[in-house]
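Readers of this paper often ask what the protein records in our data store actually look like. The remainder of this section carries one protein's record, kept here as part of the documentation.

:::
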Amino acid sequence: QVQLVESGGGLVQPGGSLALSCAASGSIFKIAAMGWYRQVPGKQRELVAAISEELRAIYADAVKGRITISRDNAKNTVNLQMNSLTPEDTAVYYCNAYIALAPGPLSSYWGPGTQVTVSS
């Protein structure tokens, strides 16, 4: 019923920039937080950035200063602007959101992931 759709992944050269976008749709009452995670084969998924409904943001130390997260509460979208990318940023990036379908508890939802490859 609830879907997260990601876009913007692809190939970028080292030092380049890339913007990811994620849109949540369905019977949504409230989105309390949205974020981006990334994962490489053989390693656990790690937080990249997250942002609250009040637009308060947190970042992983590895990306702080290079990546900016933003959201549009009216459109239920979250974006990730990535700059000064390095090969270490290569991963599958996943959109995450804590969503309530009605007044009450929140549940975590994930997008299918989008590949980001930083290479010459």
